[in-house]
Amino acid sequence: MKLKHSQKTADLAVEIVSYAFVTIMVLFTLYPIVYTLLGAFKSNAELTLGNSFLPQEWHPENFYTAFVRSNFLQYFINSAVISVTVMIFAVITTSLAGYVFARRDFVGKKFWLGLYTTLMFIALGSVTLYPTYTLLASIRINKILLGLILTLLGAQISNVMLVRGFVNGIPKELDEAATIDGCTPFRIYWSIIFPLIRPILAVVALFSFRTAWNDYITTLVFSISMPSLRTLTVAVVQLRYSANAAAEWHIMLAGAAISIIPILIVYLFCHKQFIGGLTAGAVKG
User: Fold this and answer.
1) For residue 61, with 0-12 CB atoms within 10 Å meaning exposed, 13-18 middle and 19 or more buried, which class applies?
2) Phi-psi region of 42 (alpha: psi -120 to 50; beta: other; left: phi over 0)
């Protein structure tokens, strides 16, 4: 009896610690978002002093000022076009690459797979911006959205590995049966593999959309000479200073809140597929 009582006590303690840890992590994650949304309704003086968490006086006009001053409609369209296009092409390219690495045999497969995997652990970051910009300038697509889309479409290594691991969990007997029936490799991919890997593709779609939407450095470099290419993320930073060079944090936070809302909406609609994809990938991987 004492042993059972001690075991129950230990289980209860573990459960309490687990809930406490998860609660703390959720609070740390949500605090910046809540602070941004509430700070967007404060005056600049109140926000700078930081005396209260909730606004003492609500200023919804901050959103109007941010939207009008920075031409947010155009930048929102740019962000939406870039993010959606990157998401679509990321799903197509990563599913094809993951299928090929998992199912097809070709010369140098182990070498390219090893090289591809190695690049996951090398953070090149801004080092590649200049050569990438120079390359796109040489073919004259550095001043249109297509150049920025192609740049952000790169670095899909992690997503390819996710898809490859998921495809490896699908029985190869399905491929063999389809081959006997006369299916080509592409037909096997499109008719069998693609429908079965939709859960992990939902994860890839959300990851790629979020990365493209939140990108700052790459978009800033490409839009220095072409302000019309700016996205919401770059435009938000421009709101920090007014015409007289005074810091206007309340307007900047209002712009940040505007840029956060779309990605929150996307996640609210896709969170079931996102969690399901990660869970299924963990089981199949």
Assistant:
1) exposed
2) beta
Higher pLDDT, 285 or 262: 262
Q: Tokens for 37?
A: 């949304």
Q: How many CB atoms lie within 10 A of CB 138?
A: 9
CB 90 within 8 A of CB 156: yes
Give the C-alpha separation, 196 to 149, whole Å: 28
Q: What is the pLDDT of residue 125?
A: 65
pLDDT digits (tens, 9 = 90+) for 124-160: 667 778 888 888 889 988 888 998 999 888 878 888 9
Chain centroid to CA 182: 39
Strand partners, 247: 241
In contact, 254 and 60? CB cutoff 8 Å = no
Distance CA 127, CA 57 (A): 45
